[in-house]
Amino acid sequence: MGIASVAEIVRVHGAGRPDHAALILGDRRLTWAELLERSARVADGLGAEGVGSADHVVFLDKNGIEHFEVFFGAAMLNAICVDVNWRLAAPEVEFIVNDAEAKVLVVGPDFVSVLDAIAPNLQTVSKILVIGGHPEHESYEDWVERHQPVDPGVQATSDDIAFQLYSSGTTGRPKGVMLSNDNLFALLPMAKEMWEITSDSVNLVAMPLFHIGGGGWAVAGMYEGATSVVIRDLDPAALIRQIGELGITNGFVVPAVLQFMLMVPTVADGDYGSLRSLVYGASPISEDVLARSIEVFKCKFWQAYGLTETTGAVVNLPPADHDLGGPNRHRLRSCGLPGPRVEVKIVDTDSEGGDEVPTGEVGEIWIRSPQVMTGYWKMPAETAEAVTPDGWFKTGDAGFLDADGYLFIHDRVKDMIVSGGENVYPAEVENVLMGHPGIADVAVIGVPDERWGETAKALVVRTPEVEVTEAGIIAYAREHLARFKCPTSVEWIDALPRNPSGKVLKKDLRAPYWEGRTRKVN
């Protein structure tokens, strides 16, 4: 196909299959020709606003067709579309817009209140567009229509940045993960070779587009020229209907979505004859949910393990290892085998030089692959800490390789909590909670949760003579943080256990809540 950059996806398919459906969202449909035309209008408009190569355009909205117009329109200028997690609180959004040095900000109708709160504090934005209109800012639709459908024809190189996704840092500062065309196109051919996404596929795009599992998965299908069915608000019952009505063939979902679909009373009556394969990942899955999903949906299942920093999937568990009654059932607890051009090693966490541990022993998972990110935006020290000079990325996850090369996740080296597929970094939550006058000291840990895998718990040392309640602490957190980051429970503790250097012993705090479980992640 000759596609080696994001812009070439819409250029090639817009010309080569103009009448084929590119996007479906509810009653809205865009052909590849229409998507090319509207993306070109966006490119013309962005260019008029001074956006050029390597500049950033920030997009804040739920999944929608406009995302793709801005994503491809920016790419036509070799600019970078940065999708912001719409679950974030206003101060968090403000930080990302300023950190990205965005020139243009596009905001969806559900987030006008966030825009109004942060607009006076934006440092580099010269143009704000609002989908659906706004009293003070130009309507996105009017802006698109008043520009010409002229492709500027800018060509990107393999080293240019195709994606910049923000992943919260362990210090509380979000990090802009820079993924180049080389990173992205090292992955995209796998869509056809492994997951059977082809030009006639109807690909489910249900995960948030600010995630690599949303935006990256969508691009994997579009690279092949497939039709993307975009889900704005996830309704499990509606999703079940759409599989049959639209003939969905492929999809990526987090385990929680499978669990919610299985809870729909009519799930067994759905029409799943079109499904070829479902890929699941972003958080571990229970064997019960997996077994029932295989029985109900009757398609091939793939498990994918990866991170934003690895452009998504680097380790995959193939359908052959999803045999529930076979001799290798234990492999269902693994992530699978490294993908093409992916190296995995398990490193002694006490080693300074990256010494590997023997087969079967637990250590930190390191990944080396052409998919490993270019680096963190404007954070060279953090990049150097995460990626070794010879290209190994330190995932922060702990696990082991068995004798057959299958990767099993055991625990986390870092303190990150994964709640419903969202990464929650305790340091960020702790920094906010320490602003509460009733909290003298606090540690946030992940505890098991049947619905979300795990959720945050705050272990609080009270400030003497200051009244504080569990409900009050949770409400305080929700004022300052996205809801998924906030503690769902609070416990009181006289003092936090610390080592001689003052570091809180999170492992000791977590242990009682994970007793009797084979893994210390859920």
Could you characterize what this model shows?
Helices cover 28% and strands 26% of the residues. The chain is an alpha/beta fold. It has a domain at 417-514: 2-Layer Sandwich (GMP Synthetase, Chain A, domain 3). The model has no long low-confidence stretch (mean pLDDT 92).
Remind me, CATH topology of the domain at 417-514? GMP Synthetase, Chain A, domain 3
The major beta sheet can be summarized as: 9 strands, mixed
Largest sheet strand order? 2-1-11-10-12-13-14-15-16
Distance between the termini: 41 Å
Oligomer: single chain
Assign a percent range to the helix content. Answer: 25-40%
CATH top level of the domain at 417-514 is Alpha Beta
- Helical element count? 16
Low-confidence spans: pLDDT under 50, at least 5 residues?
none
Number of beta-strand segments: 26
Class inferred from helices and paired strands: alpha/beta
CATH architecture of the domain at 417-514, please? 2-Layer Sandwich
- pLDDT averaged over residues: 92
Look at the structure and name the CATH superfamily of the domain at 417-514. ANL, C-terminal domain
The portion of residues forming beta strands comes to 25-35%
Which radius of gyration do the C-alpha atoms yield? 23 Å
**What general outline do the C-alpha atoms trace?**
globular
